[in-house]
Amino acid sequence: MIAIFKRELNACFDMPPGYVFIAVYDLFAGYFFFSFNLYGNSTDMRALFEMMFTVTLFLIPILTMRLMSEDRRAHTDQLLLMAPVSTTGIVMGKLLAALLVYLVAMAITLVQAFMLSCFAPVEWSVILGHFIGLFLLGAALIAVGLLISTLTENQIIAAIGGFCVGFFLILLDSLAGLIKNTVLAGFVTDLSFQTHYRNFTLGIFNLADVVFYLSMTALFVFLTVCAFEKRRIA
Fold this sequence. Notes:
Elements: H1 2-14, H2 16-38, H3 46-64, H4 69-74, H5 77-82, H6 87-117, H7 124-150, H8 155-170, H9 172-176, H10 182-190, H11 193-201, H12 207-233
Helix pairs in contact: 1-2, 1-6, 2-3, 2-6, 3-7, 3-8, 6-7, 6-12, 7-8, 7-11, 7-12, 11-12
Membrane topology: Multi-pass membrane protein
Transmembrane segments: 20-39, 51-69, 90-115, 127-149, 156-179, 210-228
Pfam families: ABC2_membrane_2
């Protein structure tokens, strides 16, 4: 797994997508920081993080679109399938590499928070809540994108598919409002990424929300392993 992790991490920075993801993510974070905090003369970073929630949804597919698709297109996936590495190790190595790139991009928000704290008190519980929430959201969306990337060799299709599935999972709470059966509506609401993100925005660390995101990440990793293992057997 470590070898796959290093290989994938090098690939992220040998090709444009890794740099593009970090640059665009930090560009948006910088713009919102200037608009809401510096120009707006405020130490409240809620608005910035709320906007970064949307940015994360749009940018994660760019990061994940090549994770499996590129190997499949270049036929290097056959080498991975024959390598003395478990399918789970391959998938986890790729997931962790993408997650590290995402974490590097996210780090700018903590730098911004420290900058603000030099001039006025900041609500660290809210900031850390948003940061952890965004990290867990990103982990789940990366797992979603990894699965979609496994199913196609076309990176554009992988990006679009990853965005559509992620967007659907976030909007589930809105769709639940259309369901008349209250039990079913509650179940659908509980599956929404948006529902479990709200407590983090208030600085509330609910174990159920953390478990939800970790479970969704594990679920999509499992589905990716199954899809990849099917190709190994074939």
